[in-house]
Amino acid sequence: MHSIDAYRTHLNQGGFDEVFGQIHSCARINESRERMGSLLHQMLENFGRNEICFASAPGRTEMGGNHTDHNHGHVLAAAVNLDCLAAFSPAQGNAVTILSEGYNPIIVDISDTEPREEEYETSAALVRGVADGFRKLGLNIGGFNACVHSTIPAGAGLSSSAAFEVLLGRIFSYLFNRKVVSPLEIATVAKQAENIHFNKPCGFMDQMASSYEGILSIDFNDPVNPGVTRVEPGFKSESCTEGFYGTGYKLCVIDTGGSHADLTPDYAAIPEEMFQGAKCCGQDQAKRLTMHKILENIDAIREAAGDRAVLRLFHFLGEDERAVQQAEALHEGDMEGFLRLVAESGHSSSDLLQNCYSPSAPKRQPIPLALAMTELTLGSRGVGRVHGGGFAGTIQAYVHESDFHRYSQIMEKAFGMNSVIELSIRQPGNEFLTIPEAGAEK
């Protein structure tokens, strides 16, 4: 840890620029400088001249495996350059105090880490939940002060909550556990905090992608200890190349502005129908089902769970295999094959999984509208798919660089300014932003 003055000096000398380029992209270096400078000022104003450190945790994008994780399938996910950035310092006692501009202060006494119903769906619940997870793993916890700034838009499908949870885990790991807590342990604690303390039945992909970083092929066959393979794309690119690995395409998500309110039954129905269908085939989940097995039991599935359950099982079979194929295409540097698989994933989600709009609100279809506009605008020079849970929220698009400006203008006319969010992939290795010791390499 170092003083605020030391951080400010290193920042003003450009000492963090290389790291900023790696985790936030070269285009955002000036913004990164401003963020760190603002957090330094806030720490000084609110907590005095203490020794501090900086931690960062990224949002994530789902690249493949739409609604496969909850049935023990494969996903392809990646950490992105939008993040939660925190300046933090230890505090006396067991109080965690977190300040974030524009939000009410978060103050939690972690002497008691049991879930509290009155804290459901609050940031305080996540603080208490992460502390509880550390305690149950036999790890150390304690009080700290932090000032946080996030560039992850809330509700845009980029997992701002998972990033905040992972950020908390990294701070507890740094301050009280000599930075030895593994990415899997932090992701596990983060998921449990969201499930139990925050009271949201999320899957595991978001926390895994934020905690491990890079592009990950994840096998949830063992949901407690998923298999994680980091995918190294076979494209030639410079470390600071904007766009998607120098392929000529840009990766983005489009926030359609659709509300997730009242959509919990739609989300819950997807795994439930898959579970019901699998049960008719003698299994607890869709993993390891075959087309032959589904067709052999199709009458029982239709009677017990309905026709949509059969279609959703068809989606799972194709999407589970497709997520693995996407990882292989990236590794081999086959962008054409990768984009073809992205398009197949999008059509499967729309036609079989049926998570592009809620049947309870048929007049509100922002995701199908965004997908149709993407296809009509880009033709063969890009592709879009529903992103994440679906029913409302975001789509993901790969857009040829020559078309990106025109595409953004068209989409923002329909969905509002800044609705097109350009992303780059964040690689692992910069969880903490520290000042090199004298004589050490940067």
Explained architecture:
By secondary structure, the protein is α+β, with helices and mostly antiparallel strands. It has three domains: 242 residues, Ribosomal Protein S5, domain 2 (2-Layer Sandwich), CATH 3.30.230; 87 residues, Alpha-Beta Plaits (2-Layer Sandwich), CATH 3.30.70.3170; 85 residues, no CATH class. The protein contains 14 helices and twelve strands. The strands form two sheets. Strands 1, 2, 3, 4, 5, 6, 7 and 12 form an eight-stranded mixed β-sheet that branches. Strand 3 and strand 4 form a beta hairpin. Helix 10 packs across helix 11. The radius of gyration is 22 Å and the shape is globular. It starts with a helix and ends in a 9-residue tail after the last strand. The mean pLDDT is 93.
Low-pLDDT windows of residues: none
- Quickly give the CATH architecture of the largest domain: 2-Layer Sandwich
Distance N to C terminus: 15 Å
Q: Could you tell me the number of beta strands?
A: 12
| Share in β-strands | 15-25%
Please report the number of helical segments: 14
Shape by Cα distribution: globular
Largest sheet: 8 strands, mixed
Instruction: List the secondary-structure elements in sequence, H or E.
Output: HHHEEEEHEHHHEEEHHHHHHEEHEE
Task: Report the top-level CATH class of the largest domain.
Answer: Alpha Beta
Tally the structural domains. 3
Secondary structure category: alpha+beta
Rg over CA atoms, rounded to whole Å, is: 22 Å
CATH domain fold name of the largest domain: Ribosomal Protein S5, domain 2
The residue fraction in helices comes out at 40-55%
Quote the average pLDDT: 93
